[in-house]
Design a protein that fits this description.
The protein is of the alpha/beta class. The chain has 15 helices and twelve strands. Helix 8 links the parallel strand 7 and strand 8. The model has no long low-confidence stretch (mean pLDDT about 95). The structure holds uridine-5'-diphosphate. Uridine-5'-diphosphate binds next to helix 3, strand 8 and helix 11.
């Protein structure tokens, strides 16, 4: 085993790594390309950053390409994102045409790599039309949807469906998100990398340095939500929940930390709305962090007593996984991928309103023993289900199955 695989084996057990090696064997030397629209910010970049090197380590010739676009393009793709998650948005035809032009320009740059690759994974709607401009493609193309597509606005879905239907397979994070398509749909939830700066254990002095830097009181309880400033993450609902809970826990502190993703044009506007809602309460720390602040986020999650992810829509919610891995109970919105991770009374609580969140915050601070027990369960739950090695195993299985053209069975060796 290589040094990198040894490090993963120390967390997952050797069997998990041997299984990966077995699955990778028939795919050795195959070229795999992942394409998304941002190198930093948001969950997709977070996953690819780690999935790609681990796949390489197993002998797959894997690379990661990022498409580029202008502000009109991102305005259009953010509308795709919001309307796939249910907002009724009619996108003007000029923007849709621009979206196609940008895909064509990117295809012109990437055509050789994409047409030659054995497997191409296209992440989310931004690069979905690349396939249309790669008519001589040789390999299998997979559309990977990271968004809650359970109730897409039909106008948007009809437009995207024209491009998605030409793929060989789709991946959704939950069965509830699957749409009717003329190819196989795979259910593969995302994952976190236990060895990344975002998730490794941190020394106590580093935790203390972060506590001091953000003027957090070590004696006072702390709740945190880490998220892009996006309305579906409901940062205003988090502030409401904090204010309600604070009536019973007067020294409660709240950290709301986020950054911007280069493919998300709404961050600044939402941040300003959140700043108004936070007012001048010195116990609310509203932080805008740079995209490489992984250890800082790691420390904030570890310093917290409870982590919130009060989203009203959530494809998966890596922030939930990250918090559970650190042994923190999570109070999460009862939606999408959060439901896969937050199990009431075991790893946290699912809530629908700020009042519900406040109630659970109070419950947990009154039940310190329960909080600890939940934290222990949370970490093991992630180890079993949501580590990078599991996601890669499922990607390898998918590739083997597509390679052999077996719809309902996979043959190894
Ligand atoms: N994240 C970050 N900085 C921030 C906000 C979020 O590094 O300011 C990370 C967060 O730790 C997580 C990812 O970005 O790994 C967000 O993924 P998630 O699935 O929770 O939400 P998405 O942004 O993809 O909707």
């Amino acid at each position: 085993m290589t040094a990198m695989l040894d490090c993963y084996a120390a967390v997952t057990g050797e069997d998990v790594i041997r299984h990966l090696q077995q699955l990778a064997e028939p795919l050795k030397g195959k070229s795999v390309v992942h394409v998304n629209s941002t190198r930093v910010g948001g969950g997709v970049a977070e996953i690819l950053e780690k999935l790609v090197p681990l796949a390489r380590e197993l002998g797959l010739d894997t690379r990661w390409e990022v498409i580029s676009g202008d502000s009109e393009f991102y305005q259009c793709t953010k509308s795709f994102h919001n309307s796939i998650q249910g907002d009724r948005i009619t996108i003007p035809e000029t923007l849709l045409n621009h979206f196609l032009e940008v895909n064509e320009q990117n295809a012109n740059h990437l055509r050789n790599v994409l047409e030659e690759a054995d497997f191409v994974f296209i992440h989310d709607p931004q690069p979905v039309a690349l396939l249309k401009f790669c008519s001589k493609r040789k390999g299998k193309w997979i559309w990977r949807c990271h968004i809650d597509a359970s109730h897409p606005y039909r106008g948007t879905w009809r437009f995207l469906d024209r491009y998605i239907r030409d793929y060989d397979a789709s991946i959704f994070s939950l069965s509830q998100f699957v749409q009717l398509l003329p190819h196989p749909a795979y259910i593969i939830p995302p994952s976190i990398d236990p060895l990344s700066d975002k998730n490794v254990d941190l020394p106590q002095d580093e935790l203390e340095a972060v506590r001091t830097r953000f003027e957090l009181n070590p004696e006072a309880p702390l709740i945190t939500q880490i998220s892009r400033f996006d309305r579906f993450k409901d940062p205003i609902g988090v502030i409401k929940a904090y204010k309600l809970a604070k009536q019973y826990i007067p020294n409660l502190q709240l950290v709301l930390a986020g950054g911007t993703a280069t493919d998300d044009p709404e961050g600044e506007v939402v941040f300003n709305e959140v700043a108004v809602a936070a007012g001048d309460d010195p116990n609310i720390k509203l932080l805008q962090l740079p995209p490489d602040a992984h250890r800082t986020i790691n420390a904030l999650q570890r310093l917290s007593d409870i982590v919130l992810q009060k989203s009203t829509k959530e494809g998966f919610g890596l922030t939930v996984t990250e918090a559970l891995w650190k042994g923190k109970p999570v109070i999460g919105g009862d939606t999408g991928g959060i439901r896969l991770q937050v199990i009431n009374f075991h790893t946290g609580f699912l809530v629908n309103t700020p009042e519900g969140a406040a109630l659970r915050i109070r419950y947990l601070f009154n039940q310190k023993q329960k909080m600890q027990e939940m934290g222990i369960k949370s970490k093991e739950f992630v180890r079993e289900n949501f580590l990078l090695t599991r996601q890669l195993r499922e990607h390898l299985t998918l590739m083997v199955s597509l390679q052999h053209g077996a719809g309902d069975r996979i043959e190894l060796g």
